[in-house]
What does this fold into?
Amino acid sequence: MSNIRPASRRAVLGLALAGLVIPRIGWTLNAARGDSPLAAPAMAQVVAPIQALNDKLVAVMRAGRQDSFRSRFHTLAPVIDGAFDLAAILRISVGLRWGDLEAAQQASLAKVFRRFTVASYVANFDTYAGERFEIAPTLRAIGADQVVSTTLVPTNGEAVRIDYVMRREAGTWKIVDVLLDGTISRVAVQRSDFRGVLAQGGAPALIASLERKVMDLAGGALES
It folds into this structure.
């Protein structure tokens, strides 16, 4: 990462533009209405998945391209599974069409969507030059959801803001959207992209599209 400022922004914005989920993007403009009143133990529960994700991203960045894409993928996959509600994100991304899909199509989409999400992070956080993540000391409430604001701080150059929308399901807080630069909803970008692909060729077209994106991101380095 010889040019830290562009590289940091490439890593973050690449996640939003990799090809593309909560269509409530307007919430991001109203998110700063007040700090969360959550007590410290409750806040720790909300932040814990983000801290684990940040720690593992730094580890993957440090490994860099000296480690194989496949190895970094399998290093990062468990923390992605733990931090994100991928099933909910996928359902919202597909929208009303989800209920019309056959069970086998839903399962195939879930599998390739997970691979695509992990591969996007591996591909976009692949070098290290002393960057660090900082988590804001307070949360912002959006209804029942909480927003964890983080910053990717390079050793010099412009820091990049990454906000995570967290939702509690069955007692566990998980990510349901990522707001890049604090405003660009990855979910909204993804939903728009999915809608276009589904309109053209249905679930088979979306599955094939995501499979191609995984291949492009991984350079063919992942098994099916």
